[in-house]
Each structure stands twice: as structure tokens, then as C-alpha cells.
Amino acid sequence: MSATDNKKKSIPVAPVPPAGVPVNLLSSVAPPSELPNFVTASPVLQKPSVIVPVSQPVQPAAGDHAVIDSSQQETFSPAIPPNKGEPTLPIRSPEDSQATQSPEPPSTPEIDKIGDIMPGSGLLTWMKGAVSSGGILQRVAEKAKSSVDTMITTLDPQMKEYLKSGGDLYIVVASDKEVKVSPIREAFQTVFGKATVVGEAAQSDVTAAQPVGYAAAYAAAKQRIAHVRSTCAHLTNNVPVLAIESYLQETVSDRWYEISLVLLSQPSLGIELQLQSQGTPVPAAAVAALLAATPADYAHAQTGYALTVGSVMADSLHVPHTEWQEATTGVSRREILSLAARSLAGSYKKLLAISAAET
């Protein structure tokens, strides 16, 4: 190796400062080199070229892939064709275009009803229409009213008569005893929804105190109705009057039953309904006691007995005279009369509908 090569490969050494002079470490660092410049020069805009539109452009065949030369750059032109940059789509007919559109949701009957009820009106009008049309709001309102009525009548049972009183039906019962008036009121209010049922005192003096047989009971009931119409001046022939008469019936030898006859009369429509309740068995010994308590010269001995069966059965069972049926069979007289009155009320309602259809 020559001396010249040794000189080229030798590493320069920084001069050593004289003694006593502080050493500066940064003095041996070379100055920084120039940073690289990544910003390229903006391309020179060329002169806009005029594009001549082609009347029949040639499109590549389906399946062929067009090869674009990256060296050819598009030049800016102020005259851009309308279909510049838009993909080529097949031409479709208006029928095809309508078929491809999303179908509209079909109108349902509920939507049509709502449209009829609220043609541009507010929420209150829609709610009023929904209630009057018998929809869900009406059922909710009826359920709420029924719940409130049940709560009121549970807290105060006497409010039931007040809540269901009224309407177009007014009935008079030929008795002022609640044991007769209450089941009649409940039965007619159940059948008609609302009804006003009142009681008027009435007496029968054409038969015995305890009628025996259907004929005697019918005569006593007719007498009670006539007594009410004669004493109550405000009653017209268009007001129905109802009477209840209990009688004894011997079905076979020594087989006695206590039955109630329910009679309704409305002369203006020519209506007279008769209905018998279910029978309550009466011991033959009680009937023998009634016969023994009736005097031989009793004026109405041919129609029955001088004492009622209730008084004899109450003394024998040691219960009030209105509760002997329940003590004997477990079914109260109120329940017996209520069931019979409901049947009569249903028949009366059908007759009213027939009469209204004929007029």
C-alpha cells in the first residue's frame, strides 16, 4: 500500500485546545445537511383542447376489459358532454321502471277507518269518533265504567239502585216490601241495563191470606194491580204494574209446594205476562197446621187458609218468616223471585220489540 492511499484513508482528528481553555463538545459536530424536499412542482397546465362529440360512440363489447394507459392524462375541457363519467345503463320502459320501484304499503281497513274518522282533524275528534264507532276506546271506556261501578257498589251496596236507575223503563211493583221489590228491580235492570222500579202498597181482599191453587193466586195478583192503579193517580195505562202472589199447590197426594206467581200488566199494549217460580217443598204437617188454624166460618175458606205458610214455617224453624225457604232448601226467596223475574223481563223485552216493529 502506498503512502498516498494511507493519506486518503486517514481519519481527521480535531485539534487539541491549549491547556486551560475549556473544551466545547459541539465544536466537533459537523453542520446539518440539507433536508430532502418532497414537494413536487405543480404541473404546467396545458392549453385546453377542444373535444369533438362523436355521434355514435363505440362501446366495448360485453366481457371485454378496457385497458387504460396511465401515461395518457385527461385534460381539462370547458365543454363536458352530458354523459361524461356516467355508467352506461340499459334503456328501460316506463313499465319496467315502475315495477322496480319499492311497492307502497297496502292500506288496511283500520287505516281507512282512521282516515274516515279524522280527515285532517285533531286528536280529540279522532278519539270521539273512535268511541262512537264502537272501537277499542269504547270497550276501554265501558270496562273502566264497569270497574268504577263495581267498586262503588262494593263500598256501598245501596248505590247500585242509584247507578242503574233511569232510562225509559218505569215499573211499579204492587208491594212496598223490599223482599219483593228488590229482586224485581235487580232483574229488570240486568235485562234492560237501566230501569226505574218502585213499590206501592197494595192489598187483596178477594182471596184468603194464604191462597191455595193457581186460580186463587191469579185473582189475588189481579186485585193488587187494580188497587195500585186506583190509588195512584199518576199511573197511566202505559205504565207496567207487576204483582207477586205466593200460593200452595198440591201436586200429588200430601205433596205440597210453595210457588210464587209473577204477573205483569200493561193495558196500553195489551200485555199480560204470567210466570211461576220454582217450588219450595212444604211439609204436610205445616199444611195441616194451617187447616187447623183456619176458622170454619172464615169468609175466604174456599180460596185458602187464614194464616200464611211463612208464619207457620218460621215458628217451626225458629227463623224470620222471610227466611224459611233458605232454611229449608238453602235457596232464599229473593233468589227465587230474582230468577223468575229475569225470565219475565226477557219475555217482556221481546214483546216490546215486536210492538215497536209493528208500529
UniProtKB/TrEMBL annotation:
Compartment list: Golgi apparatus
Transmembrane helix found in the keyword field: no
Keywords: Golgi apparatus
Major place of residence: Golgi
Domain Non-canonical purine NTP phosphatase/PRRC1: 175-267
Region (Disordered): 1-21, 62-115
GO cellular component, one term: Golgi apparatus
GO MF terms, alphabetically ordered: protein kinase A regulatory subunit binding
Family classification: Belongs to the PRRC1 family.
Protein name: Protein PRRC1-like
UniProt source species: Papilio xuthus (Asian swallowtail butterfly)
Organism placement in taxonomy: Eukaryota, Metazoa, Ecdysozoa, Arthropoda, Hexapoda
